[in-house]
Automatic annotation (TrEMBL):
Protein name: Sulfurtransferase
Top-tier EC class: transferase
Organism encoding this protein: Microbacterium alkaliflavum
Keyword Transferase recorded: yes
Disordered: annotated span: 264-284
Length: 284
């Protein structure tokens, strides 16, 4: 993985102008608009290939597996070849909302053996604000031949997540009101995993951009995640947890992702639920 998993608009533009052959992946996805193909066709970075979250970066199963289970190696490899990736390619991923979807692609590719994957800091909005070239229409690259490994390293199961607070720091990356259990718009039960501490992405973002490395370290340290003990993260469906892992990678803190996240936990009978503003205020 590159020392800094983020790349600035200026650096990316320079490398594209120099003909570095960077592979660009556009991962536009939101819960309220999961299909980003129309927006992609209207405007995207030159040469970028559209990546579909639901069919290429996630599997589909029972509710007890969570909303975005990780895809098999075969599914992800077939998708990566459709994107035109070959072994040794440098890859830059972006989206149009806080780099959350892009972080999912980054995390999957890094843990499948792709060495050079970076996320465009600020995403599409930063590129547009810099008045840099865009293009429209479909992009169909020549199929690639990349070989991916089985997903490995820094991945937690539901049982790992349950036991994690006893050995380190478990981060809940959702909004504070969902962590506290005040509201739950997507899953059947409101609350958080007992022992988890709340670190919403807004604590280390400035709009669409990540804050400085010092600011990220401060945000992590404020909830006890200094890297001196193991750190793991979960969210609603596993996407923002990968974003937390990306932020950790910027400052050299390894963050294990629990992909099933709250959508799996809350759909698994017998799992305890904590509510309130602290790790274990009220447990049921």
């Amino acid at each position: 993985m590159p020392l800094n998993p983020l790349i600035s608009v200026d650096e990316l533009h320079r490398r594209m102008e120099a003909g570095d052959g960077i592979r660009l992946l556009d991962v536009r996805y939101r819960l309220d608009q999961p299909d980003g193909t129309t927006d992609f066709a209207a405007s995207h970075l030159p040469g970028a290939v559209y990546v579909d979250m639901d069919t290429e970066l996630a599997a589909h199963g029972e509710p007890s597996e969570g909303r975005h289970p990780v895809p098999s190696r075969e599914v992800l490899q077939d998708a990566a070849r459709r994107w035109g990736l070959d072994d040794g390619d440098a890859v830059v991923v972006y989206d149009d909302y806080r780099s959350v979807a892009a972080a999912r692609a980054w995390w999957l590719l890094v843990h499948s053996g792709v060495a050079d994957v970076r996320v465009l800091d600020g995403g599409l909005s930063a590129w547009t604000a810099a008045v840099l070239p865009l293009e429209a229409g479909e992009v169909v690259p020549t199929p690639g031949s990349i070989s991916l490994t089985e997903l490995s390293g820094d991945i937690a199961t539901i049982d790992d997540a349950s036991a994690w607070p006893d050995r380190g720091v478990l981060l809940d990356a959702r909004a504070p009101e969902r962590y506290r259990g005040d509201t739950e718009p997507y899953d059947p039960i409101a609350g958080h995993i007992p022992g988890a501490v709340n670190l919403p992405a807004s604590d280390y973002l400035d709009g669409e951009h990540f804050v400085s490395p010092e600011g990220i370290r401060d945000a992590f340290a404020a909830v006890g995640a200094t890297g001196e003990t193991p750190v793991a993260a979960y969210c609603g469906s596993g996407l923002t947890a990968a974003h937390t892992a990306l932020a950790g990678a910027v400052v050299g803190i390894d963050v294990t992702v629990y992909p099933g996240s709250w959508s799996q936990w809350s759909n698994t009978p017998g799992r305890p639920v904590a509510t309130g503003p602290t790790p274990g205020d009220e447990i049921s």
